[in-house]
Amino acid sequence: MTLNPALDLETSLAEMRPREKLRCTPPRSDPGGGGINVARAIHALGSTARAAVALGGPTGATIATALQEAGIDVLPLAAPGPTRQNLSVIEASTGEQFRFIFPGPTWIPADLAAVEPPLSKAVVAGDILVLSGSLPPGLAAEALVDLAMSHVARGVRVVVDTSGAALVAMVAAARGMNLLRMDGPEAEELCGRPLPRAADSADAAQAMVNDGVAEAVIIARGKDGSVLATANGRWFAPAADVPVVSVTGAGDSFVAAATLAMSRGAAWPEVLSCGCSAASAAVTTPATALCDPEVYLALLPGTRARRI
């Protein structure tokens, strides 16, 4: 599910300079937003996922068409305004990436209430619902908690990958979702201390599991890899040593492969390994391309999880 999607535009130029007209290459466009990217990556990995997306205006229609033409099933949800666009610019002289993220339309509680009936009709007990990406402007952080828990209560397996106030609210609620993923800096902010070693991240993830936040908690450690903790163990999976083209979409690719592994009944160490392999594959591609399935499979043996 993506409440705050965007049409992601990517271009490049020779050099970023202020006050000048900067001539860019023809832009590449892709539907973007956490849940959309997860659905796209699952599709790239050879499976199927339904993208429940809040859409509005011409940009929303463009996103829906692009997803459908890519073979992705779309559940359109009504957004209270036009869907946003984001811009990613690569500076050719340095390889640096500049990302410009714009706000989406402002929501009120009634807007969220309006999308809940079609979503609840589409998602049944035993399904996996991935809540990924940022909350739209206007919604309180607790709105994501309420949405997640309403589906947990119906027997839906809920995976959450969010940030900021929404992440803080999810952790504070401690209401037992299936899987929660976060980045290392987010985990450090939640814990109020640095997490310099993988073991430190594992301790933090274990504490959240013990508090009832989720059945499993994953903390990503960037180029080092990721850790996963459950009530029965803690594991570390290394990231693959690959050339980095763009880190955009790495986290969404991680969630896609991990969710796909969960849907196939994989044990938690395999879920972690699959996620790390997909994230590693994603950084080798341009900003909006996500993980390449052949690269993913080639990297998988090198991202095997081990106990920590």
From TrEMBL:
Keyword Nucleotide-binding: yes
GO molecular function, one term: ATP binding
Keywords: ATP-binding, Kinase, Nucleotide-binding, Transferase
Domain Carbohydrate kinase PfkB as annotated: residue spans: 20-293
An annotated GO cellular component: cytosol
Presence of the UniProt keyword Kinase in the record: yes
Family as reported in the entry's similarity comment: Belongs to the carbohydrate kinase PfkB family.
Name this protein carries in UniProt: Phosphofructokinase
Organism: Gymnodinialimonas phycosphaerae
Taxonomic lineage from the root: Bacteria, Pseudomonadati, Pseudomonadota, Alphaproteobacteria, Rhodobacterales
